[in-house]
Design a protein that fits this description.
Phosphoribosyl-aminoimidazole Synthetase, Chain A, domain 2, 2 domains, binds magnesium ion, binds adenosine-5'-diphosphate, alpha+beta, 60s Ribosomal Protein L30, Chain: A, 7-stranded mixed sheet
Length: 344
């Protein structure tokens, strides 16, 4: 396929190429891309939630193994995940990019194809952004806007003693998926070998490369009239997120090892790297599942919500935050979460 240099079409030409076919779908989007600002309007009984993420090439993503289309999808999905973590419904996103001359128009169109797919999947409108150049590499900033019924936003600070601790999906997969990609990148860069082995790793690779925001869980909770007392999305590992909730709510927790959901493929791949599946679930990052607490009275309603598990309960702060192992040992939870600021 022929490749077009960015300099050939200029900034305005590029914006036009990238942002066509993004017609707004939500009632709250009065006007999308094309003016100095987008215009939004929300019903009076809603509160508005806003979140931003900044992603930097070489720090948050590696284009050696992350295709641009997947990166576009993931950039939107992780912001939608933050909106979901407030028990809110995502409505709009803006996407700003800084790119160096090594990127072609066609490559950026791939990135926007991923954004388009995510916008469709989560029913959000791309309503603006900014486009500029960088000295090296790519930077992506996505802002997402959502709405939630007044008083129903789920904060990190709302967990109460005796609440149930719940988690959606399964954990650790994205982390072991990353280990596979890093291993194959190493083999490729060290030996130039073309025999990259990615077969048999479908689930964990998909968990790393194409994470999904759990909007479906937010919708299912609402349909069963369950309002979480607190909620957070799992981007840095279960341990780190549990401690955020406990600290901000002024409580402790007991979480049972045997209840923590780990996929069989995640277990197998963890074994290949001599890692304990529990460690991957507790300290691995980027699963983008939801961790939340609900009042004990919601126990029966919760049983009807698919793909959600009760993993423990909230207790008094004086009891601390602990994992209860299969051997019935009590291990204090420490935050060793995946952290972009730490050396990896
Ligand atoms: P301004 O000079 O006000 O920054 P621009 O010419 O940069 O305006 O942008 C024109 C329109 O295109 C605006 O609606 C802006 O939000 C949108 N836009 C610019 N860059 C992007 C992008 N990378 N993704 C989505 N929308 C964009
Ligand atoms: Mg601009």
């Amino acid at each position: 396929m022929s490749q077009t240099e960015l300099s050939e079409i200029g900034e305005f030409g590029l914006i036009e190429r990238l942002t066509r076919d993004f017609d707004p779908k939500n009632d709250s989007t009065i006007q999308g891309i094309g003016d100095d600002c987008a215009i939004l309007s929300f019903p009076a009984d809603k509160e508005i939630v806003v979140t931003t993420d900044l992603l930097v090439e070489g720090i948050h993503f590696d284009l050696v193994y992350c295709p641009l289309k997947h990166l576009g999808y993931k950039s939107v999905a992780v912001n939608v995940s933050d909106i979901c973590a407030m028990n809110a419904t995502p409505r709009q996103v803006t996407v700003s990019i800084a790119v160096s001359a090594k990127f072609t128009v066609e490559a950026l169109e791939q990135f926007y194809e991923g954004i388009r797919l995510a916008c469709r999947a989560y029913n959000v409108d791309l309503v603006g952004g900014d486009t500029t150049s960088s000295m090296t590499g790519m930077m992506i900033s996505v802002t997402a806007i959502g709405e939630v019924e007044k008083g129903k936003a789920a904060k990190r600070s709302g967990a109460k003693v005796n609440d149930l601790v719940c988690v959606s999906g399964d954990l650790g997969g994205a982390y072991v998926g990353l280990q596979i990609l890093e291993r194959e990148k190493y083999v490729f860069t060290q030996t130039g070998s073309q025999s990259i082995k990615l077969e048999g790793y479908d689930y964990v690779l998909q968990r790393q490369l194409k994470p999904e925001a759990r909007l479906d869980v937010v919708q299912k909770l609402a349909s069963h009239s369950i309002v979480p007392t607190s909620m957070i999305d799992i981007s840095d590992g279960l341990s780190s997120e549990l401690l955020h909730i406990c600290k901000q709510s002024g409580v402790g927790c007991k979480v049972y090892e045997e209840k923590i959901p780990v996929n069989v493929e995640t277990e197998r791949v963890a074994g290949e790297f001599n890692l304990l599946p529990l460690t991957c679930a507790l300290n691995g990052g980027e699963d983008y599942e939801l961790l939340f607490t609900v009042d004990l009275n919601s126990y029966h309603k919760l049983a009807m919500v698919a793909d959600v598990r009760i993993i423990g309960n909230i207790c008094d702060a004086s009891e601390g935050s602990n994992i209860i192992t299969r051997q019935n040992e009590r291990i204090p939870i420490v935050a060793q979460g995946w952290n972009a600021m730490k050396d990896k």
